[in-house]
Amino acid sequence: MSEERLQKILSHAGVTSRRKAEELIVEGRVTVNGKVITELGSKADLERDHIKVDGRLLHAPKRHIYLALNKPKNCVTTVSDPEGRETVMHLLRGVRERVFPVGRLDYQSEGLLLLTNDGDFAHKLTAPGSEVIKTYVVKVTGTLTEAQEKTFKSGVPVHGRKTAPAELKLIKTGTNPWYEVKIHEGRQNQIRLMFGYFGLLVEKLRRVKIGFLELDQPPGRYRQLTQREVDRFRKLLKLETESGK
């Protein structure tokens, strides 16, 4: 195996996402052959070098695993939490492989979340250019006007940058209506901020679909993706299919 960037090696080894791996390196939590590495451009060879994260020696995953979890509310989408809150990892009883979340759902949000130890898969799925549609159902504190719906769909400013075009459909009327929202971006708290732009608060937010994959598990439960689903995702992301190797 040739040398690769450390953050890519950590991601491929199922430690965490590539972006989070960069944070681990900068924080001085990664060593190569006993030496602490903090430079993001550093390279190593997983087969030749001894690479450790928090003192734990890395090994290439024996097999790739892909999980679909129904994340409940009041749960953090991280491998660990410095505040001691429950993370999605606590829900993965019986999973021996070291996996990490693909993207995120915030603390109060719930619904479909993918976890894997396939770094390329995770990186491609969360990359800005992937444009994989994520579908949400959202309960808010008021109804958007026709003009506001049009603005919502075309994009609203969030932290100084306009959101990409979104799909929006009112699916249940009332004082606190429900909307279906489809986006392909993954900016933090994006949907809450988009409704907040119009003075509305999100009371409930559930992700019900990622690409073609629908939420089909009760809260807190997970299942492995079938090989057919994995291959379909890999084709969608322009990755070589596992069964085609």
Overview of the molecule:
It contains six helices and 17 strands. Helix 1 (6-12) crosses helix 2. The strands form four sheets. Strands 7, 8, 9, 10, 13, 14, 15, 16 and 17 form a nine-stranded mixed β-sheet that branches. The mean pLDDT is 90. With 245 residues, it is of the alpha+beta class.
Main attributes of the structure:
245 residues, alpha+beta, nine-stranded mixed beta sheet, four-stranded antiparallel beta sheet, 6 helices, 17 strands
Give the helix/strand layout.
Layout: E1 4-5, H1 6-12, H2 18-26, E2 30-32, E3 35-36, E4 43-44, E5 51-53, E6 56-57, E7 66-71, E8 100-102, E9 110-116, H3 119-126, E10 134-140, H4 146-154, E11 157-158, E12 161-162, E13 167-172, E14 178-183, H5 190-196, E15 202-210, E16 213-214, E17 222-224, H6 227-236
Parallel strand pairs: 9-15
Antiparallel strand pairs: 1-4, 2-3, 2-5, 5-6, 7-9, 7-17, 8-9, 10-14, 10-15, 11-12, 13-14, 15-16
Q: Tell me, what's the shape?
A: elongated
**Number of strand elements:** 17
Strand content: 25-35%
Counting helices, strands and paired strands, the structural category is alpha+beta
| Termini gap | 18 Å
- What's the helical proportion of residues? 10-25%
Oligomeric state of the chains present here: single chain
> How many DSSP H or I helices?
6
Cα-based radius of gyration, to the nearest Å: 19 Å
Biggest sheet descriptor: 9 strands, mixed
Low-pLDDT stretches: none
What is the chain-wise order of helices and strands?
EHHEEEEEEEEHEHEEEEHEEEH
Mean pLDDT: 90
